[in-house]
Amino acid sequence: MGCEPTTTPDAKDVNIPALREKYRHERDRRLRSDGQAQYVRPTDHVAGGHVADYTTDPLKPAIVRDPVSEDLDVLVLGAGWGGLLAAQHLVKAGITDFRNVDTAGDFGGVWYWNRYPGIQCDNDAYCYLPLLEETGFMPSQKFSEGAEIQGYCRQIAERGGFAERALFHTHVTTLVWDEDAKRWVVTTNCGDAIRARFVIMAAGVLNMPKLPSVPGIETFKGKIFHSARWDYDYTGGTWDNPVLDKLADKRVAIVGTGATAIQIVPHLGQYAQQLHVIQRTPSTVDERPNPKTDPAWAASLQPGWQAERQANFHRAAMEMFAPGEPDLICDIWTEISRNLAAEFAADGYPQSPEDFMAAREVMDYRVMERLRQRVEDLVEDPATAEALKPFYRHLCKRPLSSNTFYPTFNQPNVTLVDVSDSKGLEGMTEAGFIADDKEIPIDCMIFASGFEVTSSLERRWGIETVAGKGGVSIYDHWRHGPRTLYGTMTDNFPNQFYIGYIQGGLNASVTEQFGRQGEDIAHVIAETMRRGKSVVEPTKAAVDGYVAKFREVELDLSAFQSECTPGYFNNEGETKPDWSLFRGWGPGWTSYRAMVNAWRDTGDLEGLALS
């Protein structure tokens, strides 16, 4: 099983020096001095006469409940993939006295909030959805629908026996370490007072929507909403049947052409009277092969198939296929490695890492040139096609796929509004928005502007106080980026653990990474309890040692990032941001897991102080 390499322009036909300069130019003309300040938390915005408080849930009515006051072994902050997998591993380790807490109304995280029309997973669901062999669940197609994914999240919680203990529609306001009680005292907006021995911070990276800070947005008298809070009452349709018939007489604008917008735009173009797609930076959008799951193929799978597939995906997306290894994924994420593997098999493998990286860079330019040609082939208007062409390295932005996004721009009711020269939306008025110094009247503005991903910890977590020993704030402790032991613990914050892109190994499948972190955390908690101890905390020396080693081996991506257009991958154009998504263990995922597994296998919890 596998697939053939794609046909790309020959290396001699791709002018890499000229493209490198073009990439640099496209990046520089989009850079803004205000960085993350160009975005605001929606809780701070007044739009259309209504306070858009995105910590509340319009999707499911909150159940009025009495405040909870209790002692608890473990509190898990989050009920998305990080929180789900932490809970799963707690159960597996024999720990059942825990709760998940989340502002949403159910399990799923981003898959709970995101219910916009056309939502699907945008990478291989057989890799992305975890625990498939354990649960017996099989995705219905290669790129699962959002409703299917959220339902599977709920199924995992129910199978694990922790679904009914979760506290939903609940926002944690303070987390304070009580040195005398040896517990975390947790308060919430529901009046809860929970005293937890251990706390797992699993809020995820896609939990808080963000809006561009647009001058005049508060004056707009039409409808405004974020894609993560889709308003079907306004548009018509439902999550599982997105017939947006109420937009037939509406002039609609959508800000963004990223992973969310490319799925929404074809639906808006089908139903809206007029659609304006406001773009700062185009995405790479390849074709989307999305076959239904073949029952015969599913029945033929042998034990261990998912781990094998995930490892294959990881090698393709972040490392390199082994000689003779087939590409099991066969999409835009694996194309560069698939093409290189075929050429290396024919011409010989590189003799050094430097030669390999040089060959990969050339293939990167060739693949991107193919993707730009795809725009020309599918978009009829030359000016629109040119504006939709991506000029940057392949992983500067999330690789995307769609069969309907580009053809939508051939419709007479759809207009691309490129705002790259003004570096974003210029402003809004009572009646519409400003582009090229002209007012464009609209009835509805939709922001597909993403989430707080690499901004400061305060903005992403939204918790007023997280205070460890001596009252030290985690926000000050990590003011210039995280300092951890193995990416999951830090000094001065006993019995507190973290799941996310924090100083650890990077895996191409986020759920595989979060799952392994959850497994490590459950191991430490279980060992602490088994040994009859109350407190576990990494020593400062252990944290200092790991941070020093991490920085020594960390991949230096500054040269690569200098060619990337601004976005959440590089914190709006920084070359080495404190909270970059991709600051990972340099030798790679296999090396990182071998190090952590060896540490666990010794059984002595070296670097941790138990008391």
Structural notes for this entry:
The protein is an alpha/beta fold. It has three domains: 1-19 and 306-389, no CATH class; 31-56 and 211-284 and 418-447, FAD/NAD(P)-binding domain (3-Layer(bba) Sandwich), CATH 3.50.50.60; 69-208 and 453-533, FAD/NAD(P)-binding domain (3-Layer(bba) Sandwich), CATH 3.50.50.60. Helix content is 32%, strand content 15%. The chain contains 20 helices and 23 strands. Helix 2 runs parallel beside helix 6 and helix 2 packs parallel to helix 17 (510-530). The chain is globular, with a radius of gyration of 24 Å. The relative contact order is 0.15.
Q: How many beta-strand elements?
A: 23
State which percent range the strand residues make up.
Answer: 15-25%
Helix content: 25-40%
CATH class of the largest domain: Alpha Beta
Structural class: alpha/beta
| Unreliable sequence segments | 44-51
Mean pLDDT: 91
Q: What's the CATH architecture name of the largest domain? A: 3-Layer(bba) Sandwich
The geometry reads as globular
Q: Major β-sheet, in short?
A: 7 strands, mixed
Task: Count the DSSP helices.
Answer: 20
Question: If you compute it from the alpha carbons, what radius of gyration comes out, rounded to the nearest whole angstrom?
Answer: 24 Å
Question: Any key phrases for this structure?
Answer:
611 residues; seven-stranded mixed β-sheet; 20 helices; 3 domains; FAD/NAD(P)-binding domain; five-stranded parallel β-sheet; globular; alpha/beta
